[in-house]
Each structure stands twice: as C-alpha cells, then as structure tokens.
Amino acid sequence: MLTRAAVLRSSPGELEILDLEMAPIQAGEVRVKMKAAGLCHSDDHFIVGDQVPGIFPIVVGHEGAGIIEEVGPGVRDLAVGDHVVFSFLPVCGRCKWCAQGMQNLCNLGALLATGSRFEEPGTYRLSLDGEPVGALASLGTFAERVTVSALSAIKIDPSIPFESACLTGCGVGTGWGAAVNSGEVRPDDVVIVMGVGGIGINAVQGAAQAGARAVIAVEPVEWKREFALKLGATHAFDTIEEAADFGRSITDGQGADSAIVTIGIPTGRDIGQGLEAVRKGGICVAVGIGDTHVKDGDIELHHLVLMQKRLQGSLFGQSHPTSDIPAQLAMYQRGQLNLDDLITARYRLDDINQGFADLKAGKNMRGVIVFD
Hints:
Shape: globular
Strand content: 25-35%
Number of strands: 18
CATH topology of the largest domain: Quinone Oxidoreductase, Chain A, domain 1
CATH architecture of the largest domain: Alpha-Beta Complex
Mean pLDDT: 96
Radius of gyration: 20 Å
Low-confidence stretches: none
Number of domains: 2
Structural class: alpha/beta
Distance between the termini: 17 Å
Largest sheet: 7 strands, mixed
Order of helices and strands: EEEHEEEHEEEEHHEHEHEHEHEHEHEHE
C-alpha cells in the first residue's frame, strides 16, 4: 500500500510530497486514514535545522486525528472505524514514570526524534525506493495514511470534528498544562504568558480557567494580542518589560505568581526575563524549545536562591495523555475550552510549505492540514 506524505530529506530543507510504501501492519499497531494534522513549531525545528532527526528521509508531523482502517494482532481497545487522536508522546503504562503517574515522561519518549518504531528501535514502517523512511514521533502525521503504535492512539467521540480534535495531541495539552500543571496556577493568581501562538494561547485559556485574576499576554504581533484578550487574557503587551512592570503594579511590587514562556524559539535571555518577572517563590515555566545548537543563558542566580524562585521545565504540559486528552475534549464539548477558533487557516497537503511559511510569518494561531 502507498501513502502520500510530506517528506524531509535534509535539515535544513523543504518538505516534498512523495508516494511512500507502507509495510504490512504488525502486532500492537493500527493503520489510520488521516483526516487532520496540526502545523506545530516543533515540526519546523527539524525543517529549519534547529533540531536534527535520527534518520533521513523522514515524514514529519506529530499532531493528528483520523479513522482506524486496520487493527493489528493484540490490539484490544481499538477497532476499525474508531476515531482517534494521536498523543505525540506514547504511554507504555509500564515504565517507572508511567507507573508514578507521569505519562508525559514515558521512557519511550526518548525515541521521538529517531523516526523509528517505539517498541522496535531501528525499525521503520515506511520506505522509498527500498530505503527506510522515518516517522517523527513514530507518527509522521503529514501523510494520508499512517501506521502507528496503539500506545499513541486515543479513542474519541465520533461527533468531535477532526480538525479541532487533532490540536489536543500536542498544542492544547502543552499550553494548557503548562499553566495548570507546571505553573500551578491558582485562583487570584497573576500570570504572564510570553508568546501567544498555538501553544501560548492555550496557556492563556488554562490560566483563565484555573481562576487567575490577571492573565497578561506578551506578544509582538498585534492581532495575536487581540486574539488572546478574546480567549481569557485580561491584559496584553508588546514586550515582557511592559508586562512585568504591570504585574508588579498590581501586586504591591512583588511580581507575577508565574510566567509561562511559550515563545517558539526562546533564548536564555527570554527565560531569564520570565524568572525576573515573578515574585518571591514564583514559578517560571520553560515550554518553547530553542535552537539545540545554541547554548546560551542569562539567569540571575540570586533570583533562584535568595528569592526562592523556581525554574520549571514542562514537557507536554506535564499532562497524562490517556486521561487529559479525553478530558480536554469533554471540556470542548461543554463549551469550556475553545478549540475551533484556534484554527485560523486550513491547507491541503500539497500546500504544506506555505503553511509553515505562514506560521513563521506570524499569520496563524494554528494552521491545520485537511485531508480528503
């Protein structure tokens, strides 16, 4: 069987639409006809070369939803016809981290960038002219059909639109969880969100839903500031300096309770500014992934020690995909979580490079590839 897919041959590089050969389905796997896939900055890191995958060529894309067409031996909880969303992080359910309720740190996640199967490192399910082709996060959602581990597929209510549902596989959980889980936002908190794109806008929603009295968005693009004000931000500023000053002005000079850094390509200085903006005992949450080739930092160490501040990393918003994705979709169905308005542009697979160009130009909150 063939699948049309967006393939990356080098990094930096440009995506090519090619026909790939799919291997027969194996035990523990499902084959899915893709219906929607989100364009995430994490994919673009590989395209521009900030990060390098473990194999070329590779199909990128890690945010997606579709319908199961075939189920491999040993798969018990999924069936042909089921609608599913992919968690870009697998959940083995057996490792130390899964057993302790930290599914986002599942040991299988170490293989995300290798392009290989989680359960069989060094093996692949796609090929081009007889040579193996990787799949980012063992998913490669920028393809018309994908073969994935059942550990990555979460069954959803078939009434939920695929385009909105696919966002919960990465962007929604990463941003929402960065505020609610990693930032520990509580009622009456003052929260700063640095960068209001596809991740940060969900941190805004999460902070607002957690009861923050002030959700301060920091974003240089004017329409994104206005968008944030519609989805839960109480104030919006162009720079972190303005936001930090305002946060201090409403907290007797203390500063925000938390700062969520969701800039697409953050620098050490961005993290340092977030840390400076929070009060004594406050939390700065690092979410965005910077250029892995650059080792920089600009952090005032006395903020960590003498003011007992915390610098907290956040992977997938410290979420539990098997329970949090269904919970977020249930919130969506009740009208408590806005997913539909996050989609500001739709593209065909053939137009995927334009989609990423628009993402980098700040034109989209979230672009989505829509399949037939």
